TrEMBL record:
Source organism per UniProt: Erythrobacter sanguineus
Domain (BioF2-like acetyltransferase): residue spans on this chain: 158-287
One Pfam family from the record: Acetyltransf_6
InterPro entries: Acyl_CoA_acyltransferase (IPR016181), BioF2-like_GNAT_dom (IPR038740)
Superkingdom, taxonomy of origin: Bacteria
Molecular function GO terms recorded: transferase activity
Protein name according to UniProt: Acetyltransferase (GNAT) domain-containing protein
Keyword annotations from UniProtKB, A to Z: Transferase
Length: 324
């Protein structure tokens, strides 16, 4: 017998996320940070005698969506693999009809089967499901190479830039959280071309926690004693995640961002021995210089045909498909 329930606290995810060998964005601690930003958790959990599965969600006006923000590279289910987990996910999907007429899940990875599992669960529960690519993820499979071997395969212009500019910039990679260095990062970010941080306190708390766990790789580049570029990476389960990077436009001629990126790539490849480097979401052209593979991220949009509020978007789908 399967029991499905809702909770408004992310604490119930502790046991489930502890067993997940996923990304930083699968942990209960990550969802706790999201809740502290003002998001209201809707944690849907299903259990049977031997297993449990959960979806970390939020809800607004009958529209259910993932508990996430723009710092999250991915969002996915917390569920055991195999038929047992699939049955629990279907039970959650069926129960969610009592909380909303629409469920939109994104950005869901496909390479691990998450997009297929979730779409299948909601279809089996009676939802009308549309799956579409919604974002791009650039990654670098290291394939056992050293940094020197990897660097030989980079575009000539990138290699030339590093050769000409590297001696003008001093880089440092910290594996701990340093409040002063983080303050320098925040100052650089505020003065850079980047949009204003949505939740800077959350990112700082995340970096501090990752530093305490030994997962943080905080890179800084300096010229004449001034910090002019900074990057925040983390490493776990043989994967390096590039979370944030920024440099001062006033020092663009020094190419400090390129030099600092090379230092961090060298650190995670030669010292941390990672198997994969993940550049998050977004299809910015510069990422192709550093990364070699591209993976899609999916939006799974589910509408309940039994609820009148779902009829207008369902009709819109029909019109769009007929005109395509």
């Amino acid at each position: 017998m399967i029991e499905a329930r809702y909770h408004d606290s992310v604490n119930v995810l502790q046991a489930l996320s502890a067993n997940a060998a996923g990304a930083p964005f699968d942990r209960a601690e990550w969802y706790a940070l999201l809740a502290e930003t003002g998001l209201t958790p809707l944690i849907a959990i299903a259990r049977d005698a031997d297993h449990a599965a959960a979806l970390a969600l939020t809800e607004d006006g009958g529209h259910v969506s993932p508990l996430r923000n723009w710092y999250s590279f991915t969002w996915r289910q917390l569920a055991p693999e195999g038929p047992a987990g699939d049955r629990l996910l279907e039970a959650i999907a069926r129960q969610l009809k009592t909380r909303g007429h629409r469920v939109t899940l994104e950005p869901v990875p496909g390479e691990d089967g998450s997009a297929q599992r979730l779409a299948q669960a909601f279809r089996a529960a009676g939802w009308r499901v549309l799956v579409e690519p919604c974002d791009t993820n650039h990654v670098l499979p290291v394939r056992g190479r050293s940094f020197a071997e990897y660097w030989e395969d980079r575009p000539g212009q990138l290699r030339t830039t590093l050769r000409r500019k590297a001696k003008k910039v001093e880089t440092q990679v910290l594996t701990r959280f340093d409040p002063q260095v983080w303050a320098e990062y925040e100052a650089i970010y505020a003065a850079s071309w980047k949009p204003a941080e949505d939740q800077p306190a959350m990112l700082r708390a995340f970096a501090r926690r990752e530093g305490e766990a030994g997962r943080l790789r905080l890179g800084v580049a300096r010229a004449d004693g001034a910090t002019i570029a900074a990057q925040c990476w983390t490493v776990e389960n043989a994967i390096a995640y590039i979370h944030k990077l920024a440099h001062l436009e006033s020092h663009t001629a020094l190419s400090a961002g390129t030099t600092l990126s090379a230092a961090l790539f060298q650190h995670v490849i030669d010292i941390d021995k990672v198997d994969l480097i993940d550049f998050g979401t977004g299809d910015q052209s510069y990422k192709a210089d550093w990364m070699e593979d591209v993976r899609p991220r999916f939006c799974i949009d589910c509408l309940d045909p039994a609820q009148p509020r779902a009829w207008p978007p369902l009709a819109k789908r029909v019109l769009l498909s007929s005109s395509a």
